Amino acid sequence: MREDWIREWTEEQFDQSEAEGGESDIRAYFDLGLFTKLQKTFMTATGMNGNILDPKGVAITDKFEDRSPAFCRLVQSVPEGERRCLRSDERVTAYSIAKETSVVCKCHAGLYDSAVPIHFRKHGMGAFITGQVLLEHPTDDMITDILRRVESLGLNKEALIEAIRQVPVITEEKLKATTEFMSLLVEYIVKSLEENESKRKEAEWRSLLLETEMKVIQAKLHPHFLFNILNLISGQALLENASQTYATVNHLSRMLRYIVKSYRPLVTIEEELSQLDSYMQLQVLRFEDRLSFAVDLRDERMKSALLPSLTLQILIENAIKHGIEPKEGPCGLGISIYSMEDKGVIEIEDTGVGMDEQILLELNEEGGEHAKRLSGIAMIRKRLDYYFEGHYELRFRSREGQGTKVIIAFPITARG
Predict the structure, then answer these.
(1) pTM, entire model
(2) 403-411 and 393-399 as β-strands: parallel, antiparallel, unpaired?
(3) Which of 119, 134, 249, 275 is 20 to 30 A from 56, comparing alpha carbons?
């Protein structure tokens, strides 16, 4: 056996892989019926025990004790033995996740386990494991070594020796073939997880669309009446030589027409910036000399890049409400737009009050509580995820008292 293929765990190696590996709960995504069927198929085809474990080594499918070697059942008949077995399962699962490949390791008692990691959404979700086998018939030295490993459990020595002699013995080739079979089953599991996630996103998006459509319908109630009133105010302001009021009403009218009449899922950045100009003119009038605003379009090609509508305005609104408004004195707000390889990048930066590390952490986590409270941010994240099929980034950087930067990176697509 090659040393790079079989590895016996030490506490130091396990602690390192446990600290480095991320995790996510597979129970939120998996189909128990399907996984149990795959588990039974594997055990019937190979005659070996098999389990699907979470990142902590806890089984998420039923354990079939009759498939476990008598030696393992004997060791697990005492609490300390059961704890060691669970620890071994956790170790081989964590190691396979950290290595991102199938591994074969020795358990605490000296028997061999094999594990294939289950990776989904860039997280190690768990592993498909099998084992409790020997790769050659037990010699006297092997039996002595195994007895030494479990000596402190206080089990009957004669019963242990008899159980060791009953542990399944398979060749290295068969263990490799069994591991390959497990890899095929894991591929099927990951595809199942992807399909379930896709269905969940589709249902979530349909619900989101329905909610948005209802809001749009509500916003469209009597729009002509609203625009007629705005035109009346604008005309009156012009007659009275109230140029600032005239400009304010015109900016508001342009902004509302964009929202009500131009409801499309995706718009060009050029359209977004044109709409944002009217919005920011109103904000500059509101804050007078306290707010400055600038747009830095570094790549003209980005004008035709597509983005979910009102993305920029929602992020600007959040910057003004949570960063600019609470701060006294002059503040700056700017947008930088450029391309990097095949991605478009938009940076929105303010010199407002900033935010503390806890809020920043929650905003950068998709399920963070603060992000949930900011419904606009949650809406943007969902729409970016839907339209760009997960190939996007939405990140926040901030320092208290100095300001906040929002960074969006997304694939460059143009309206055909």
Answers:
(1) 0.47
(2) antiparallel
(3) 134
Q: pLDDT of 207-227, one tens digit each?
A: 766 666 555 555 544 454 455
Tens of pLDDT, residues 137-177: 999 999 999 999 999 999 999 999 999 999 989 888 888 88
Which bin fits 389, alpha (ψ -120 to 50), beta or left (φ > 0)?
A: left
- As a whole number of angstroms, the distance between CA 131 and CA 56 comes to 18
Q: What are phi and psi of 239, to 5 degrees?
A: -65, -35
Question: Quick one: pLDDT at residue 216?
Answer: 54
- What structural domains does the chain harbor? 6-199 (3.30.450), 265-272+285-416 (3.30.565.10)
